[in-house]
Specification:
Number of strands: 12
Strand order of the largest sheet: 1-3-4-5-6-10-11-12
Radius of gyration: 21 Å
Shape: elongated
Strand content: over 45%
Largest sheet: 8 strands, antiparallel, barrel
CATH architecture: Beta Barrel
Length: 246
């Protein structure tokens, strides 16, 4: 939550620095919201991966090309990732098992590039449907794992581990042949969104970020040979400055 507030302040600082757009047709939106972060991939349903509810915040530029067509870009923070929940049987002793849970957090700063088309216009209402690209930069990532041990279905103990991911541009290896990074810095994907503007001042946005590649530099444990693609479906509310008189 502390990190989320920090990045939210960054976006509102960006919003304040663009006050000179009053004299132009370009407008700025400042938004905050929440969303569902999850992953998809081959056999992912049987791998114990479940979604997480996380926050998002953005400061966007809306650049009109015409009365019906606008370009949207800016800065957007979203925490992606997933949860893992599975039972693991001991191959050597069937009377023993492990209940494994984990929370994976990946904090991204995104630069969207979306073209939107106005599909509805009334005196107090405007609605846009758009699509484009989303360019993400991974700021930090971490995983917290918990192991609950059972013998004959009786709980016998627990252990946990926390680690941060090593981030880099490309994978490389040390002298022993081990990976030097866990996650790639850059992650590109597709973005779809629906934006509603009320009274030229307030906005509600539904959007979906669709990952097109696995951001992990190595295959995640439990995923086999699957490549997991990040997904984020979010909603945000905010204000428009100055009024969006398109």
């Amino acid at each position: 939550m502390r990190r989320f507030l920090k990045y939210s302040l960054l976006f509102f600082a960006f919003f304040s620095a663009l006050q000179d757009v009053r004299a132009q047709r370009i407008v700025v939106t400042a938004e905050m919201g929440t969303g569902l972060a999850y992953v998809t991939g081959k056999n992912w349903r049987s791998s114990g991966y479940t979604p997480r509810i996380t926050g998002n915040a953005s400061a966007s530029l809306l650049v009109p090309f015409s009365s019906k067509l606008i370009l949207e870009t800016g800065l957007e923070y979203a925490q992606k990732g997933f949860k893992t929940n599975m039972h693991i049987a001991d191959a050597d002793d069937p009377e023993r098992s492990i209940h494994y849970t984990a929370t994976t957090k990946r904090n991204y700063l995104n630069i969207p590039l979306v073209v939107s088309f106005r599909v509805w216009h009334a005196p107090k209402h405007q609605m846009f449907i758009g699509g484009g690209m989303n360019f993400g930069f991974l700021m930090n990532a971490s995983t917290e794992e918990t192991f609950d041990y059972y013998h004959r279905n009786v709980f016998t103990g627990t252990s946990s581990v926390y680690y941060s991911a090593r981030i880099g541009l490309v994978q490389s290896y040390d002298k022993n042949g081990y990976d030097k990074i866990d996650m790639y810095l850059f992650d590109a994907g597709l973005k779809l969104q629906l934006r509603y503007v009320y009274k030229e001042r307030y906005t509600i946005r539904l959007f979906h970020q669709l990952g097109i590649a696995d951001p992990a530099a190595n295959t995640l444990d439990g995923a086999g040979n699957s490549k997991l693609k990040q997904q984020y479906t979010g909603i945000s509310v905010g204000v428009v400055f100055p009024r969006f008189k398109n």
